[in-house]
Structure to design on (631 residues):
């Protein structure tokens, strides 16, 4: 029998169970699900041994109808159809225990009714165990989806798996399960954490007497006088009308958490200006039973909006009653009705909408999907569709177009069960639980943008919407002392100048006929050392005073000029290298040119350099000597 709020991974080993459970568990229970079924090899009887796998799906959201051993390590698994409807067989969720360490098996799911699904595009089943509670996808190299001639050319999903630990319970599922008990536990925890952010009420009861939860976010100040200019805007969101589409519950959870955050400025601005009505699970009975698409009596609720009944579809009737009341009210204006689903054959996130004869209404209907596409990196515009198909007349998207007023925009938000492709790439990114919740947060941000553009929501300063990004609270600054510490002076150190090497210098800025300018600098070369002659004021950093031990024959005069005295004969003489071996650049000089007295060719003569001046001086001297001789 089903046990509410029971974790299927809390089973113990087969050898720790009661004796009657280990021996008499070959029957089926729980509305067609296997219940502690032990698969023994042919010819074996008696107590089950380690390695005789035990399958169980008699828990909440579980689905597995039959198990056949077809080989030494190969098993054929048959999914249980939805209750009272044998057409739908796609969702599976079961556990396996009593395994042997390093035991490898092959599981074949042989009766999937939906041939076109994401297993062709790389989706793989999920698995977790008792000691590893985080869901992981089986590697793609271990999963195969193909037509099997043995199974009448039906599509078969086969995957290989190796059990690495004994005394563990392994759970396999189509996608991340989200049970009715998990929703109740989450709402209880959220209600205790944010008691003033939202209101939790029961909208109705199901056929099996389960609650239809309604979450309301309403911090809007009610106006004293209501007219068309100050009506209260409302958004209605519901999900999980199909039980097997569990990712939709994670999207709703992300939306609820984002709106319930008390210190989030965007959430606060939305709650103070818009009313949100959220039904997180519209088909609790189907979710609890582990159905894929139908409720307890086998009706597809998303094809029953146009033929709903209070007795067979009590959740639809309660939701429709609420929508009618607010749509006909003069105080409220329902702007959006969003039905969240999970798609089993397409990737990415996308939106289904409707078409209208009124062009202006249709253009207004396209605004929200465009804003949502700008917020989601995983949005796929190729899969987005707007139509008025008569075959979809029983869906919420098509039914509310006729049942509600023209101001209401109804959409179906679809998220993939597998993942999405990165922009302009063939890389498939698998969704995780947090990835689905991120879509819910992006949905809330899209509502903020929409109501800003429509001038319903005031635009606060950027600093209020984007608080400063500081360090997390774990990194707190070190407490400063109240007494100001004394600043210690840096101790004085003796500075010594590094010796300068001039072995690469071979420059002379002076000539024999000049007594001005920089000191003469001769290089010690292969020809030996030679003396240096310098005229100028003394300088402690000049070349003449560096290495005083070498040039100790300097004689300073009182006019602060120093001259080089000849060395004594006892000292070894160093021969002067030939003048051709020295590089003697011309002395820098300043030439003043009077441009008013220049003639043609005068500028070239004036700037011809020092050589022109020397030749001119020689001509002048030669002329003077000639004239003096004649005289």
């Amino acid at each position: 029998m089903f046990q509410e709020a029971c974790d299927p991974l809390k089973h113990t080993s087969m050898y720790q169970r009661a004796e009657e459970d280990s021996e008499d568990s070959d029957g089926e229970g729980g509305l067609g699900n296997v219940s502690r079924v032990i698969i023994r090899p042919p010819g074996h009887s008696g107590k089950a041994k380690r390695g005789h796998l035990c399958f169980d799906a008699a828990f909440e959201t579980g689905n597995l109808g039959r198990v056949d051993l077809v080989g030494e390590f190969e098993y054929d698994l048959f999914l249980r159809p939805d209750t009272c409807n044998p057409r739908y067989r796609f969702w599976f969720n079961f556990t396996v225990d009593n395994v042997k360490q390093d035991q490898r098996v092959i599981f074949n799911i042989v009766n999937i009714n939906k041939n076109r699904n994401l297993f062709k595009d790389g989706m793989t089943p999920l698995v977790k165990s008792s000691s590893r509670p985080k869901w992981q996808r089986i590697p793609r190299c271990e999963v195969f989806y193909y037509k099997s001639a043995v199974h009448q050319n039906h599509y078969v999903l086969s995957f290989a798996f190796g059990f690495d630990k004994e005394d563990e319970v392994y759970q396999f599922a189509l996608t991340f399960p989200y049970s009715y008990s998990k929703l109740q536990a989450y709402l209880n925890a959220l209600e205790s954490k944010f008691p003033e952010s939202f209101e939790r009420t029961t909208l109705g009861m199901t056929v099996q007497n389960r609650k239809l939860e309604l979450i309301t976010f309403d911090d809007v100040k009610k106006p004293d006088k209501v007219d068309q200019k100050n009506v209260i805007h409302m958004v209605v969101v519901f999900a999980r009308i199909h039980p097997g589409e569990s990712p939709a519950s994670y999207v709703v959870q992300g939306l609820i958490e984002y709106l319930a955050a008390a210190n989030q400025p965007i959430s606060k601005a939305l709650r103070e200006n818009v009313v949100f009505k959220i039904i997180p699970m519209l088909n609790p009975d189907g979710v609890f039973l582990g159905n894929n698409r139908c409720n307890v009596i086998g009706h597809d609720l998303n094809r029953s909006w146009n033929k709903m009944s209070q007795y067979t579809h009590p959740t639809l009737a309660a939701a429709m009653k609420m929508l009618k009341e607010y749509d006909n009210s003069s105080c409220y204006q329902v702007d959006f009705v969003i039905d969240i689903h999970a798609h089993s054959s397409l990737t990415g996130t996308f939106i289904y909408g409707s078409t209208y004869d009124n062009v202006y209404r249709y253009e207004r209907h396209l605004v929200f999907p465009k804003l949502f596409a700008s917020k989601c990196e995983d949005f796929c515009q190729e899969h987005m569709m707007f139509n008025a198909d008569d075959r979809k007349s029983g869906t919420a998207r098509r039914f509310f177009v006729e049942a509600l007023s023209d101001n209401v925009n109804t959409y179906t938000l679809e998220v993939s069960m597998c993942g999405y492709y990165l922009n302009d790439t063939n890389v498939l990114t698998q969704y995780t639980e947090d990835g689905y919740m991120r879509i819910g947060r992006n949905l809330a941000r899209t509502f903020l943008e929409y109501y800003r553009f429509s001038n319903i929501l005031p635009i606060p300063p950027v600093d209020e919407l984007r608080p400063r990004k500081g360090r997390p609270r774990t990194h707190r600054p070190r407490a400063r002392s109240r007494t100001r510490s004394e600043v210690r002076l840096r101790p004085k150190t003796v500075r010594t100048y590094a010796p300068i090497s001039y072995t690469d210098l071979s420059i002379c800025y002076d000539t024999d006929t000049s007594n001005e300018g920089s000191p003469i600098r001769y290089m010690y070369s292969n020809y030996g050392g030679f003396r240096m002659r310098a005229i100028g004021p003394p300088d402690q950093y000049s070349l003449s005073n560096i290495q005083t031990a070498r040039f100790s024959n300097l004689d300073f005069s009182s006019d602060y000029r120093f001259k080089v005295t000849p060395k004594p004969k006892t000292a070894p003489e160093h021969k002067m290298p030939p003048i051709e071996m020295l590089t003697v650049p011309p002395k820098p000089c300043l030439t003043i040119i009077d441009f008013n007295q220049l003639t043609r060719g005068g500028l070239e003569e004036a700037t011809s350099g020092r050589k022109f001046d020397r030749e001119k001086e020689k001509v002048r001297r030669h002329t003077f000597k000639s004239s003096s001789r004649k005289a």
Summary: Residues 190 and 257 are 8 Å apart (CA to CA).
